[in-house]
Design brief:
With 483 residues, this protein is mainly alpha-helical. It has 16 helices and 6 strands. The chain has helices at 2-8, 15-35, 47-53, 76-88, 91-94, 136-150, 163-174, 177-181, 236-243, 264-273, 278-289, 322-348, 353-364, 379-385, 397-412, 440-455; strands at 212-214, 217-219, 223-226, 255-259, 465-468, 473-476. The termini are far apart.
Length: 483
């Protein structure tokens, strides 16, 4: 009782002032967020309108899991049901969308309309339009996608010695990849981004290789991996079924065991079944476990020279410490997805690469007329593919894809067991059932990386590693410092 009496006599906190300060801070942040809400119409590439005007609605747009004919072209009524529902944006409207009858459904279009209490509203941000279907950029990007499929099983540590990898580099460079995307393709830079640091070090990030602790649980980043050499959707009959929402009936996602990421197929499996907050959470846990130096904006701990920062009597925890950092990385990814889903469903509705490849295959088969010997030289091909048409008259990748698919179809007894220009897919269900642009993984991993950069100082990654012994162990990486 004496203790209670003692503390009761001390000056009380001014909760009224606290309430007013909290309200003022929230009002300030709210006003800033809504001041930044753009009322301008989002930019699009006009593909939807262009093909609607020539009587091919949805030809260059996302329509997966809707109703399609035997050519893979969307049923106009099914497409209209989706567009009408997206115009309204309610659960009731989306329940009226006419799907293709497969077991797969659309991925969360309602998220495009959800509200959020943190940060700017998802509908108020703007981004550049996706490259048009008929652009040179889209065509060269598709050539790269074909090569990625062909090189899916080449181990990253064998790129420098692989004739297939060199052929991919030669093909892309001959098409002007450097002019289009800003860098020359070599075995070291192939399938990487154009940004600073992307071409340094191993193809796989240390954040996807190094072991770390999740609380008291050690995490080894070995993962189940699909059987090498098994691709999907390499015949048109199966392709059409999957496009309507089915899963490839001729194959299963077979796994052979576990290993560290050693190939593109392995990397594809990581993003196949990960959780949106997983990459950011694991990266921050790894940095915290390494006791990485915190950024100058964090007042706790020591700076890069080992000097004490502003706060010397305490460590960060629920604010500016481990729990705060790790949860913010996950939250950033969730809110980034809300922004991405608005852009995907309500603005761009960009087709998936497997559909672009199928459009090429339709021309190869003469569905739209043209020369059977030279399907990429017809006037209609030029009309449809625009600046990208010339790209398809030059690459060597189409012949390789044709033979690759023929071998897949013979081995798996698929369709007519012939070759084609379809894009070999790494999963039985093909791409996700949400539009391609912007990429979901692109936005939520970028958001998490932004959080990490805010909390942690730039520094070299300690003890970098690479997979060895076929991905069964990790060995020391010897090369340029990684940051």
């Amino acid at each position: 009782m004496s203790d209670c009496h003692f503390y009761a006599q001390r000056p009380g906190r001014d909760f009224e002032a606290r309430r007013n300060e909290a309200r003022a801070l929230r009002d300030q942040k709210r006003d800033k967020a809504f001041d930044e809400f753009s009322l301008d119409s989002p930019a699009t590439n006009c593909d939807e309108e262009r093909f609607e005007q020539i009587g091919l609605p949805g030809f260059a747009s996302f329509t997966k899991a809707l109703v399609h004919d035997d050519k893979g072209l969307v049923d106009p009524a099914s497409l209209r049901s989706l567009l009408d529902a997206l115009q309204v944006g309610t659960q009731e409207a989306l329940e009226r969308v006419q799907l293709g009858g497969g077991e797969r459904r659309l991925v969360n279009p309602l998220n495009a309309f959800s509200y959020q209490a943190i940060g700017n509203d998802s509908n108020g941000a703007r981004m550049a339009a996706a490259p048009a279907f008929a652009s040179r950029s889209t065509a060269i990007d598709m050539v790269e996608r074909y090569w990625m499929a062909l090189c899916r099983d080449v181990p990253f540590d064998q790129y420098a010695n692989s004739g297939l990898i060199q052929a991919a580099c030669d093909d892309l460079n001959a098409l002007g990849f450097e002019d289009q995307f800003g860098f020359f393709c070599t075995p070291q830079t192939l399938f990487r981004g154009p940004y600073a640091g992307c071409a340094v070090g191993p193809h796989v990030s240390q954040f996807l290789l190094q072991d770390f602790n999740f609380g008291n649980q050690p995490i080894r980043q070995q993962q189940r991996y699909p059987r090498p050499g098994l691709d999907y959707m390499t015949d048109l009959d199966t392709w059409n079924r999957v496009n309507n929402g089915d899963i490839d009936p001729n194959g299963t996602d077979i796994v052979d065991g576990t290993r560290y990421i050693t190939t593109l197929r392995d990397a594809g499996q990581w993003v196949h079944i990960d959780l949106p907050h997983q990459a950011g959470l694991w990266a921050t846990l790894m940095l915290l476990g390494q006791k990485a130096t915190l950024s100058d904006a964090v007042p706790y701990g020591k700076d890069r020279e080992g000097r004490d920062k502003a706060i010397t009597t305490a460590d960060g925890f629920g604010s500016l410490g481990g729990p705060d950092i790790s949860i913010q990385a996950g939250l950033a990814g969730v809110y980034a997805l809300k922004h991405a889903w608005f852009q995907k469903w309500c603005v761009h509705r960009r087709l998936r690469p497997e559909v672009y490849a199928q459009r090429l295959e339709l021309f190869r088969r003469g569905v739209f007329g043209g020369h059977s010997e030279n399907p990429c030289h017809s006037e209609k091909f030029n009309d449809f593919f625009g600046e990208g048409a010339d790209v398809w008259r030059r690459p060597q990748v189409l012949d390789r894809i044709f033979e690759h698919n023929r071998q897949q179809n013979v081995a798996q007894s698929r369709g007519d067991c012939q070759g084609n220009w379809l894009l070999p897919m790494g999963f039985p269900e093909g791409s996700p059932t949400h539009p391609a642009y912007p990429g979901g993984h692109s936005v939520f991993i970028a958001a998490a990386a932004t959080i990490a950069k805010a909390y942690f100082a730039d520094s070299e990654f300690p003890c970098p590693v690479v997979p060895i012994e076929g991905g069964q162990r990790l060995g020391a990486y010897r090369g340029k410092a990684l940051t």
